[in-house]
């Protein structure tokens, strides 16, 4: 197995957001297309589309030679097109439709930033902004189908869908709120709070297969894991970066892996696959005991008294104190000092963008 390697592409702007093009589920190979957005360049920022797709082998090159060459090769992103953007690019989602909504977020006398956007099934969008407003959009409608004007009295920094009609937001006073978009009320259905000092939360992502598990990061660099079924405080707090955590992502197909980036220049790979193996121990014991007693492993009475006392864990991110020790953290950007604002991960390739005008490609990550 090839070792992971990283390569930098220098561009003439600070990168605020980076996103892979979604790959259709039936596709054999992942897309090599990604998009970037810039910030801090006055009114002349850019959205750029890039390609780093590998060149396929030819008849003159054997597959083994091709694979060895590709694993070691530095893949240089190629700029395909660009679009000038007035103002900072604060969030970025690649869609299959083209539409514009003007002045969704505003104060009484002027406009303000739209800070986040979430997409569900390519036909339902939610935006949040500095004005504390939430907009629900549908393609083909030129105005929001619903607006919650006073969703919050402070800046909403990010949003994600939990379910088809349920979204979660984080704000600048350390609150996580859940909104049932089917209801006519303008109040959140749940409010979760940070313990201790109210530090701003910058980013949010949900577990791809267990939507009740949500991760957030904020100004103090701490990784917070929340269980939407539990009380209003985080179930796990993990000391992380030494400065603001700007973005985090669960791996879509291996969610025991999570990635985060920070103002301190680091990009961390959090690997809880060992804890996941630990959490399966009770099931293995139960199956062994069932075989000894001639019972089906699916029987409701298969647990022996000893096995029944071992706690089962639904996810390593909601694990017991013992399995919290089964956590591997790798800094993928050792030596980098420029703030890393954004990242995205597909398969074993991670992209990230910095304030130093660099797009980093990290290849051949070990994903368990």
TrEMBL record:
Q: Which PROSITE patterns match?
A: WD_REPEATS_1, WD_REPEATS_2
Q: What is its main location?
A: nucleus
Residue spans crossing the bilayer: none
Quote the Pfam families the UniProt record gives. Answer: WD40
Keyword annotations for this protein?
Nucleus, Repeat, WD repeat
One GO cellular component term noted in the UniProt record for this chain: nuclear pore outer ring
Q: What protein name does the entry list?
A: Nucleoporin Nup43
What species is this protein from?
Paralvinella palmiformis
